[in-house]
């Protein structure tokens, strides 16, 4: 499984690619959680290998009564 992560301000290229084996995925209350094994992160010049990564992502839209005008 291959994924692409955008917009990391610390990355020189602005894009980091990563590849790994999807162990589990979960979606609950508009929040995704992914657990990956044997993950490689790559940018233009670096390769970083890790055993396990957990990624949690949610919708960035502001909804409901908590918004301010």
Automatic annotation (TrEMBL):
Keyword tags: Nucleus, Transcription
Main location (coarse class): nucleus
Domain Transcription initiation factor IIA gamma subunit C-terminal as annotated: residue spans: 19-60
Localization: Nucleus
Biological process (GO), any one: transcription initiation at RNA polymerase II promoter
One annotated Gene Ontology cellular component of this protein: transcription factor TFIIA complex
Pfam families noted in UniProt: TFIIA_gamma_C
Superkingdom of this protein's organism: Eukaryota
Protein name (database record): Transcription initiation factor IIA gamma subunit C-terminal domain-containing protein
């Amino acid at each position: 499984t291959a994924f692409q992560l955008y917009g990391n301000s610390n990355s020189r290229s602005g894009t980091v690619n990563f590849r790994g084996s999807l162990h589990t995925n979960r979606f609950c209350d508009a929040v995704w959680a992914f657990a990956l094994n044997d993950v490689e992160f790559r940018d233009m010049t670096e390769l970083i290998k890790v055993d396990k990564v957990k990624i949690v992502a949610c919708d960035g839209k502001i909804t409901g009564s908590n918004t301010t005008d």
